């Protein structure tokens, strides 16, 4: 198992299978690459089936325990089921998707070996959903979530990026997971230094405060210092987790993953440069690339922490330049 200079073991890998997407979400940072979406047809720079599997084989040999396939929209890859089926048996396999293709493929993906799925959903109102995603596929996404649950992908995690364009829909999303058995909600803090538009950021503490008032009980995941809020519904209990990496040192201190972009480049962090295009490398060369990238990992993404006389300190100048926090409503049509 590879261990970086800060004692973090490499146990997970995120693999972007494409940067193509049938949605055009206004907040998308495309796995840290920026807005590179283009034609929906397969692109030459995408890793082939065999190239993806070669990277996974090396990762498994290095004791990486889990892989999450992402995009773009990974279900635009017609070979997704084959990749899932042929992934190393030692690796847990999960997927992040916009859900619009799940109605037709959830069952086949489970048969291929898919174990978990995250579905991006930022509103329960079709018009608001269309405004955020630039897509009219709201009904397909809802149908896809149902298909995933029916196929046995329980729980299904709904990913909601929290920024000024979505904050007002948080209460409705919380109600949905509280009333629907098998759903969980991840509220993901917007990272303006990656996605741009710093004026869209809101104070994530306001979200925590609202959830604390609404929740029946609260737990904290020590690993990432994440809060989990449990909200009772008529027939069960929904779980809402806040993913808040900005200024959260514990989050990055416990990061155990690296990323592979759609074109085969390896990244030690979401907000670090791409290195080592691996598509045409041999397995020994891929192994060497992993070792080098893990050895060069930094303790916190971006430039939030800088090295000063051998010690890592918070870069207050960078934080001040990058984060502009605005107010945005978090209100409910109270019961």
From TrEMBL:
InterPro entries: Aldolase_TIM, Elp3/MiaA/NifB-like_rSAM, MoaA-like, MoaA_arc, MoaA_NifB_PqqE_Fe-S-bd_CS, MoaA_twitch, MoCo_biosynth_MoaA/MoaC, rSAM. Pathway: Cofactor biosynthesis; molybdopterin biosynthesis. Keywords: 4Fe-4S, GTP-binding, Iron, Iron-sulfur, Lyase, Metal-binding, Molybdenum cofactor biosynthesis, Nucleotide-binding, S-adenosyl-L-methionine. It catalyses: GTP + AH2 + S-adenosyl-L-methionine = (8S)-3',8-cyclo-7,8-dihydroguanosine 5'-triphosphate + 5'-deoxyadenosine + L-methionine + A + H(+). Pfam families: Mob_synth_C (PF06463), Radical_SAM (PF04055). GTP binds at residues 14, 68, 96, 157, 257-259. Its EC number is 4.1.99.22. Residues 5-234 form the Radical SAM core domain. Transmembrane segments: none annotated. GO terms for biological process: Mo-molybdopterin cofactor biosynthetic process. CDD domains: Radical_SAM. [4Fe-4S] cluster 1 binds at residues 21, 25, 28. [4Fe-4S] cluster 2 binds at residues 252, 255, 269. It comes from the Archaea. Binds 2 [4Fe-4S] clusters. Binds 1 [4Fe-4S] cluster coordinated with 3 cysteines and an exchangeable S-adenosyl-L-methionine and 1 [4Fe-4S] cluster coordinated with 3 cysteines and the GTP-derived substrate. S-adenosyl-L-methionine binds at residues 27, 72, 120. GO terms for molecular function: 4 iron, 4 sulfur cluster binding; cyclic pyranopterin monophosphate synthase activity; GTP 3',8'-cyclase activity; GTP binding; metal ion binding; S-adenosyl-L-methionine binding. Its cofactor is [4Fe-4S] cluster. Belongs to the radical SAM superfamily. MoaA family. Catalyzes the cyclization of GTP to (8S)-3',8-cyclo-7,8-dihydroguanosine 5'-triphosphate. This is Probable GTP 3',8-cyclase. The gene is moaA.
């Amino acid at each position: 198992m590879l261990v970086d200079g800060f004692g973090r073991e490499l146990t997970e890998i995120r693999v972007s299978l494409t940067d193509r997407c049938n949605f055009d979400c206004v907040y998308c940072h495309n796995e840290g690459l920026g807005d590179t979406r283009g034609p929906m047809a397969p692109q030459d720079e995408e890793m082939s089936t065999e190239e993806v599997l070669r990277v996974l084989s090396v990762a498994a040999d290095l004791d990486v325990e889990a892989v999450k396939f992402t995009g773009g929209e990974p279900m635009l890859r017609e070979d997704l089921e084959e990749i899932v089926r042929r992934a190393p048996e030692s690796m847990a396999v999960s997927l992040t998707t916009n859900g619009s293709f799940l109605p037709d493929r959830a069952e086949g993906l489970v048969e291929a070996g898919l174990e978990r799925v995250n579905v991006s959903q930022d509103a329960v109102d079709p018009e608001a959903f269309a405004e955020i995603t630039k897509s009219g596929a709201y009904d397909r996404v809802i149908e896809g979530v149902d298909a995933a649950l029916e196929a046995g992908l329980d729980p299904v995690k709904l990913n909601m990026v929290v920024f000024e364009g979505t904050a007002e829909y948080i209460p409705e999303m919380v109600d949905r997971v509280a009333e629907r058995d098998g759903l969980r909600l991840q509220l993901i803090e917007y990272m303006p230094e990656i996605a741009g538009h710093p004026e869209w950021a809101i104070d994530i503490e306001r979200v925590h405060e609202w959830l604390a008032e609404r929740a029946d009980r609260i737990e904290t995941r020590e690993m990432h210092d994440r809060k989990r809020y449990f909200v009772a519904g008529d027939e069960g209990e929904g779980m809402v987790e806040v993913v808040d990496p900005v200024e959260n040192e514990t989050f990055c201190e416990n990061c155990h993953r690296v990323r592979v972009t759609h074109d085969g480049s390896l990244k030690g962090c979401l907000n670090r440069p791409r290195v080592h295009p691996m598509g045409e490398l041999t397995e020994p060369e891929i192994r060497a690339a992993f070792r080098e990238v893990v050895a060069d990992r930094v303790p916190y993404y971006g430039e939030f922490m800088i090295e000063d006389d051998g010690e890592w300190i918070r870069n207050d100048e960078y934080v001040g330049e990058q984060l502009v926090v605005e107010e945005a409503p978090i209100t409910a049509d109270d019961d």
